[in-house]
Amino acid sequence: MHALMALTRANIKSYTRDRAAVFWTLAFPLVFIVMFGLIFQGGSSNLTLAWVDDDHSAQSAELRAEFAAQPGVKLVDTTQSDGISQMQVGKVDSVIVVPAGYGASVAAITNGTPGAPAQVPVYTDPSRPNVTAQVFQVAGAVFGVVNLAGRPPVVVPVVQTVQTQNLNAISYFVPSMLGLSVMQVGIFAAIPLVADREKLILKRLAATPLRRWQLVGSNVLMRLLIAMVQAVIIVAVGSLAFGVEIVGSLLLTAGFVALGAVAFLSLGYVIASFAKTEDSANGMTSMIQFPMMFLSGAFFQIDQMPPFLQVIARLIPLTYLADALRQVMVGGAAFAPLWVCAAVLAGWLVVCFGIASRKFRWQ
Amino acid sequence: MTRPHRACHHPRMQGQPEVATDAVIHVVGLTKRYGDLVAVDGIDFDVARGEVFGLLGPNGAGKTTTVEVLEGLRVQDGGTATVLGHDVATEADLLKPRIGVSLQTAALYPKLTVTEVIDLFRSFYANPRSTEELIGALELGERRNARTSDLSGGQRQRLAVALALVNDPELIFLDEPTTGLDPAARRSLWDLVRSLKREGKSVLLTTHYMEEAEVLCDRLAIMDHGHILEMGTVDELVSKRFLERAVRFDDDPALPDEVLAALPAVASVKHDDDAVLLYTLDVAATIGALLSAAEARGVEPKNLGVRRATLEDVFLDLTGRALRD
Questions:
Q1: Which helix or strand (DSSP H or E) is residue B251 part of?
Q2: What is the pLDDT of residue B10?
Q3: Which band of pLDDT confidence, cut at 50, 70 and 90, is reported for residue B81?
Q4: Taking CA atoms, what residue in B is nearest to A13?
Q5: Cβ contact (<8 Å) for B124 and A208?
Q6: Which of residues 191-210 of A touch B (CB under 8 A)?
Q7: How far is B106 from chain A (nearest CA, A)?
Q8: Rounded distance, CA A28 to CA A7, Å?
Q9: What ipTM was estimated for this complex?
Q10: What is the per-residue pLDDT for B199?
Q11: Pair type for strands B23-34 and B37-48
Q12: Measuring CA to CA, which residue among A4, A28, A26, A1 is closest to residue A15?
């Protein structure tokens, strides 16, 4: 046990002192998220509102004009039920309903007849606080203008909540990036392992009483630790800096990070079994990493890919890891049920570990 | 299973320790193949407790393969090897805690410091020596916090030896410990091997440096192409083949070859650059006669000396090749 921990510590020290490794596994995903986050944050200042006019009065037309005059606001005229379903799939950011009788009550209050102000339901999704705040900023500005015409206030917004299913780009991207980082932590393990073999470090260790399971165990422990650190950093930056709401279980998230890490680690061992030199391990890692990255649905949704690429996407483990993380973390639409994701990752783990345990050369 | 193996040129030296009484290494008919290549071809030797034993030979002679079988890193294809009473093929697990190993290439965790690497290796053994003690013994104190990648070749080798000593082993394997080192670093490593011997440790070292083998080894085996060609002490190896010694002095026209060849006990006269070499079986008689002959001609032999044959001459004689890389 002592040897296992000492070797794990030594591996971690070697890793943290390797700036390139730290960059690719920790800093790179972060840079990517920040870049992506900034791009989509800028873009999201445009609001698309579903406009439901059940009143058809001069006053409701006037209100519509005020909303339309707000900078960055686009209105889509529709019915209430259609507006809500559009919002649920992410096509509009909010639904504003002008109820029947709105014009009459506004006119009455403006003419000095006492009465309750007209109520205008505004549908928002509390799990998207940035967008919600923007919607109320716009609505507040508009109602402020309308209310100037009469006092007491003629109109008040009524908050209605809608749970949206579809995700904005950054919420889709953060779990993908986590999956991608976990993959890198796993398969990149091949490179230092092959380097240690090339430098005869593995041979030197073989001349000590150290057991092979301790060697493999320390490698697994260290990679799991890095994966967890990555997960914490990515989730923290995603939710604190870019308002990605983590709706699901953190424990289940950690479970999938761990399962993904060991599955990709065993794939890394397969690479280390076939790569003779550190350079060839590097090449093979990239050869596996890039197609996985682009075909896994981590960046592009799988149902938008050409059919033959979809077939490949259905085979690669990153698809299932990213999908599982997306479902668990942000409540994304399922590509495959969670148990299928877990089973596919476990399957890859078993097959790769089997190959590596037969083919890996220690010297 | 027996396999044909070439017998040594001569029967085993008399006075060599009896097999197994106090042998730390006992090798019989050891054979190792890599595909078609027979790297080690049925060798036999023993290493006595407290002895520094050398395997001397050129690269590719089979020295490293032999050592790696004895360390439990490779399994032989034939023959048996017993180290500290354990069969290396079946009891490597029992053997490893008791031996110390320094591999030919000593690159060790380039990003860790000297202390960190020593501490790591200490964690592999039940009763390790203290880090301070090892750092002191190997004179690594000034570099204790240096990363191993920043060490000089000599320092790196000393670290490799320190790691071989972590478990205070009874038997230490040093594979080419001074290859690539400058003369000062080489000498410091030689001192280290001598101090191990003083502590009563047994050492098996491989080298392709004649001088190193002569200086360090109590006994040595000369290996080539997977065979042991000769085995014994340096004196035994040299005097067995070269009974004659060479009396040398600077060439002098007053002493022509025909005069020198007629001197008592001289077997042959050779010239090596500006020196004359008189090969003789009786050094005293030859030198006395030489001095008389010179005096009679009114000259004096300059830089007079007696040279013995060296391991270099032995290797040349055994293989027809010089042992240089």
A1: none
A2: 43
A3: very high
A4: B112
A5: yes
A6: 199-201, 203-204, 206-210
A7: 8
A8: 26
A9: 0.78
A10: 92
A11: antiparallel
A12: A26
